[in-house]
Specification:
Helix content: over 70%
Order of helices and strands: HHHHH
Largest sheet: none
Structural class: mainly alpha
Shape: flat
Strand content: under 5%
Number of strands: 0
Number of helices: 5
Amino acid sequence: MWLLGDYWELSLLKTAGQNVLYIYFPFVIIIGCAVVIYFAARWKIPTPLKIMLGIIALLYLPYTLMVVTLLGLFDMVFNYRKLSEKKEEESEKNEGDS
């Protein structure tokens, strides 16, 4: 909406799009951070590596925000965390059947 209002030079549509973006963006960031934390815990990444990755993420903050935002957006569509839990349950069932 925001880009569409900017492209067509419609100030009302641009303002509405910006307001939606300002309200929606923090939620998407939080969901993206939840995905990152979930996979960091699931893969059992060692603490020194977590600290090093955190420092690198802070050094490249604009890229980190972009990646975390995209993770948050796509998690709402594909639900990564539920998909990985289902795969784990299926693999546990298959191991139990053997």
